[in-house]
Amino acid sequence: MTTPKEQARGKYSVTLPPELAERAQGIAGPNRFSHYVEKALRNQLVHDGMAEYARLRADGPIDDVLDAAEADAA
After folding, report:
1. Of 32, 28, 35, nearest to 6 (Cα)?
2. 4 Cβ contact list (under 8 Å, min separation 6)
3. Radius of gyration of the chain (CA)
4. Which of 34, 29, 59, 64 lies closest to 46 in space, CA to CA?
5. Residue 49 and residue 68 in contact, taking contact as beta carbons nearer than 8 Å
6. What is the CB-side half-sphere exposure of residue 74 using CA atoms within 13 A?
7. Torsion of CA 16, 13, 46, 60, to 10 degrees
8. Are 49 and 73 contacting, i.e. CB atoms less than 8 angstroms apart?
C-alpha cells in the first residue's frame, strides 16, 4: 500500500547509450538512477507541454505557460 506522498511504481526497460547512462548514474549517485530519470522525464513533459501550449496559443498572449504545462503533466 502506498502513502499519499508515494506513487505506485512500474518497472520499465529502456535502451540508452552507455555513456549517457553512466553520466546520469554518476550525477544521480548510488541507487538514485530511477529518481534521476523520473525527474528528467517530468521536466521533459513540462517542456513539451509548454511548447504545445505556446503552439496552440501562438496568436494570443502567453502568460501562464508554465502553470498550464505543469497542471497538464500532473
Report:
1. 35
2. none
3. 16
4. 64
5. yes
6. 6
7. 90
8. yes
Cell numbers for 66: 508554465
Question: How does pLDDT run across 31-72, given as a tens digit for each residue?
Answer: 999 999 999 999 999 999 988 888 877 765 555 666 666 777
Map residue 1 onto helix, strand or coil. Answer: coil
Look up the pTM and report it: 0.66
Q: Of 58, 37, 48, which Cα lies nearest the Cα of 66?
A: 48
Compute CA 55 distance to the chain's CA centroid, rounded to the nearest angstrom: 20
What is d(CA 32, CA 37) in angstroms, rounded to the nearest whole number?
9
Q: Could you give the residue ranges of the DSSP H alpha helices within the chain? A: 18-28, 33-56, 65-73
* C-beta of residue 68 within 8 angstroms of C-beta of residue 56: no
